[in-house]
Amino acid sequence: MAKDQKPRRPRAETPKGFRDYFGPEVTERKAMLDRIAAVYHLHGFEALETSGVETVEALGKFLPDVDRPNAGVFAWQEEAVPGGGSGDWLALRYDLTAPLARVAAQYRNDLPSPYRRYAMGPVWRNEKPGPGRYRQFYQCDADTVGAASVAADAEIIAMLADALEAAGIARGDYLVRVNNRKVLNGVLEAIGIDEGAADKAPQSMLDAVTGARNKHQRDAILRTIDKFDKVGEAGVRELLTTGRTDASGAEIEGVGLDATQAEPVLRFLTSKGADNATTLQNLRAAVGGSAVGAEGVDELAQIAAMLDAMGMGADRVVIDPSVVRGLGYYTGPVFEAELTFEILDEKGRKRQFGSVAGGGRYDDLVERFTGQKVPATGVSIGVDRLLAALREKGLAGAEAQGPVVVTVMDRDRMADYQAMAAELRAAGIRAEVYLGNPKNFGNQLKYADKRASPIAIIQGADEAARGVVQVKDLILGAKISAQASVEEWKSQPAQVEIPCEALVATVREMLAR
Amino acid sequence: MAKDQKPRRPRAETPKGFRDYFGPEVTERKAMLDRIAAVYHLHGFEALETSGVETVEALGKFLPDVDRPNAGVFAWQEEAVPGGGSGDWLALRYDLTAPLARVAAQYRNDLPSPYRRYAMGPVWRNEKPGPGRYRQFYQCDADTVGAASVAADAEIIAMLADALEAAGIARGDYLVRVNNRKVLNGVLEAIGIDEGAADKAPQSMLDAVTGARNKHQRDAILRTIDKFDKVGEAGVRELLTTGRTDASGAEIEGVGLDATQAEPVLRFLTSKGADNATTLQNLRAAVGGSAVGAEGVDELAQIAAMLDAMGMGADRVVIDPSVVRGLGYYTGPVFEAELTFEILDEKGRKRQFGSVAGGGRYDDLVERFTGQKVPATGVSIGVDRLLAALREKGLAGAEAQGPVVVTVMDRDRMADYQAMAAELRAAGIRAEVYLGNPKNFGNQLKYADKRASPIAIIQGADEAARGVVQVKDLILGAKISAQASVEEWKSQPAQVEIPCEALVATVREMLAR
C-alpha cells in the first residue's frame, strides 16, 4: 500500500504577544494580589468576578468603525440564530472598569448603593506586542460607585497606601500624590479658556469655532503641563506662549497664550508648598475667581483633612498639582502612587522606579446604559509593575525552594518510597518521589537540582534491611562541591545516615538551617 | 436648531451563557481552590498559568471543518500581516490539558522531567448554554507528564483524596474508585475483539472489515457496561447478547455476542469483591490468558499496594471495575471521585451527590507536536460541582458577614467618622463609612442591612461633645425587632453608648457573640 502522507505537525507555540507563567511567577503574583485583596476587603469592598467575555455593545468604547468592531479588542461574531438575524459581536474585556459599568447598570436595583467592589483578573488588548508588553495582563481595581462625596476618594487614596504596604512596599518607598481636575479647570476658566464650550452642543457657528479652538488649546496646555518635570518652569512658560528651541535645536511651537494667561497656569504648576496647607493656599491664589477652581481646592482641602484623620501623614500622601494623570478623562480628584526608591535603568543610570498605581473620579460610568449620571471613583494597581518593584527590592522572585525528593534506588520498592514521601507530607513538608526512569541515579540528582530541591532521601536495599535512610543536604552539598577538594567531597559531610523513625525530625532540622 | 437624534442606549447585559459572580461567590471558590492548590503544592506540583488565548493550531482537536474552525470554541482570525498572508486563527482554551500539551512540547528541553504541574482557571466552551451550564467555567487540574510508572497514577489518586478532604469533604463522604482500561482491553481480547485491529492501518480489505466491525462492537460493549448500574447483571447479559425489552416495552437490540463471549465481560463487571485483594483475584480470572489484561491487573495491584503504603484505606480509595469514565480516551489507570452522601433531587427523591472529579492515564499529549509519545496522567476536579457539594454540606455559601458600618449623622464630620473606621480597621475589623447621601438616617440602616453588617456605629454632635459613641448590634437588633413589641424595641437593648476609647473593644466583643 502507498504510504500515508503525514500531515504537518502543529507548532507548539504561545500565540504572539502572550506568555506562560511558571511556578513562582504564578504563586508570587497570587500572594501579592491576596494581600491587596485583604486590604480591599477590610475596607468593606466586595469581590466581583465577571467573565472574560462581554458583548461589544456593552464594552462600547471600541466602536469607531462599524465594519471592524475589534480595533483594540479581540472580538468575534456569534453564529447567527436560525431565523433570528445575525449573531451578537462578543469581545474579551480590555479592562475591569467597562464590565463594572455594565454590572452597575444591570444590577442597579439589587446592589447596595454606594457599591464598593474590587476585581482582579486578566484583561486582553489586541495591540502590537512589544518587549515586556503583552496582550493579556492582570489588573487589580477597586471602585466605589454611587458616592458623590470626596470622602469616597479619600478612602480609596488611603486604601491604596495601605495596599502598597500590605504588598510589601515599605513606608518611605512610595508616595501617593493627589490633585483635582477641577483646580486646573478653574485655572483655565480664569484665563478665558472655558471647558464647557467644547463639551456642550454649540448654539451658534461662533460658539462652535470658539469651542473647537478652546478644546485644541486646552489639550495643548495639558500636554505642556505634562512636560514640567522635563523642561522646568521657564521651559513651560516658553511652551505656553511663543515656543521654545529644544536641546537638539528644533523649534517647538508655543500654545499661543499671552504672558497674563500663562502666569496662572505656572502659578498652579508651582504651587506645591512645604505642606498641604501651603499648597492649598497657593492653589487658591492660582484659581483666582473661578467657582469651579475654588470648589476643586475645597475638595482637596476636605481630602487632606480626611487623610489626616485616617492617619495618613505627608510621608504617605501629599497634595501635588503636578499630577496630570488622565486629567482629560477624570472629572474630580485624581491620584497616582509612585515608588520613590531608585533603580538602574537599562543604561545603568539611576532613576526613580515611578508610577505603579493611579485613579480618580469619573462620572460617565453608568450613564451610557441608563442615561443617569452615577458618580464613581476608583483605583487601578499595575500588577506587573508592582511585582517588578517587589522583585527589585528582593521581596519576590527569590529562587523558590523545591520539594524534598525521595530518590528511587530499587524500582520494586516504590511503595516504600511513596510511604516516606507521604510521611513527610503528613508533617507539612513538601515532598515527592522521583517518577522518572530510576536506572541512572545521576539523573535523579540532576532532576533534584532542576527542581531546586533542598534535600534528597536515599534508601537502597542495604539501608532498608538495616532500617536506616540517607538524608542528603543538597544546598550544603552544592556549596561543598563548588568549594571543596575531591577528598573533602568524598567524605560527604552533607549526607547523614539516620534511623527511619528520625526521617521527619532530621529533614525538618535540615530545612530550618 | 434641530434636536440631535439620540443613539439607542447599549444594553447592560451579561452575554448569553455567561454570568457574574458577586462577593462570597468569588471568595468561597477562591478559598476552596487555595486549599486544593496547597495540597497539590505539598505533593511537589508546580503552578502553571497559560493565557486564555491559544492558536487554533495548538488547540488542535477542534478542526473538523476547515471553513469554520470555531465549532466548540470561541475563535477569531488575527488581522493579516501586511504582505505576510492571512493571520493566525486564535481561540479561547476549552480546557487546561490542551495548553499543557503545548507547554510540555514547547519547553520540553527546559522543564524538569517528569513534570508535575497544577493549573486552575477559567475555560471557555462555545456551546448552547442551558440551566446551570455556562460558557465560561473553572477547571482545576493536576498532571504529571513524562512518568511511565503507575506510581504517578497512585500519587495523583492519593492526592485527589487529600485534596477533597482539604476542600472540606469529610472522610466517609467521598470515595475514589480506580479501574484500568487495560483490564477491559484484556477481557475484549480474550473474547476475540482485538482493539489493535481498529487502531492500526489495515493490511488488507479483510482486516479493514474486521477492524470496523470490532470497533463498532467495542463501542457498543462500552455503552452497555455503562448501563450496569441501571439494568443490573441480567440486563447487561441480555444487552450484550440478543437484546432486551425495556420497562416501556421498547425492544433494544443486543450487541450480538454469544453467551461464551458475554460471560467474561460479566465476570469483569461483577468482579468487585469485599476488598481489593478479592477484586484483583476476580479480575485476574476475568482477563483469562490476555497479556494486556494481566498487565492491567498487575498495574492495579501495584497501585493498590502503593495506596496502602500511603495510608489510603478502603474508606477512601477502592479498586472498582465498574468505573467506565472515558475508557475510550484513557490508555491505562482511570479513576473517579464520588461524593457518597445523599441529597434530594429536584423531585425530592434521595440520590447520591455523585462524581466531582476524575482522571487517568493518556499518552497522546505531546505526540501531535513532537512525534514522540510522552506518558502522562492527571486529575481534573469539577470546581462548580465540588463547590455545590460544600454548599450542600453547609461548608460554604453561608450568608457572609458584611463590614461594620460607621453611619454619618453630621455631614461636616466625615473626617471623624473615617477616623473611627480607620481605628477599627487598624484592629483588623472590617469597617466602612456610609458614603451615600446621609440626609435620611433610615436609608443608612437599610444600606447596613443590605450589606449584612453586624454592627452600626452612630455618633451625633451631642455624643461627640460628650466623647461617646453609640454601638448598635444589628444582628441582635433584627431578632428583637422581629419578635419584640414596639415598647420593647424602643428600649433598644441592642444599642449601647460607650466612651470613644472603648470602640474597638466593644465592637470586638459584640462580633465574638
From TrEMBL, chains A, B:
Residues 8-403 form the Aminoacyl-transfer RNA synthetases class-II family profile domain. One of its GO terms (molecular function) is histidine-tRNA ligase activity. Its main location: cytoplasm. It comes from the Bacteria. The keyword Ligase applies. It catalyses: tRNA(His) + L-histidine + ATP = L-histidyl-tRNA(His) + AMP + diphosphate + H(+). It is found in: Cytoplasm. Keywords: Aminoacyl-tRNA synthetase, ATP-binding, Cytoplasm, Ligase, Nucleotide-binding, Protein biosynthesis. Its EC number is 6.1.1.21. Belongs to the class-II aminoacyl-tRNA synthetase family. Homodimer. This is Histidine--tRNA ligase. It comes from Paracoccus niistensis.
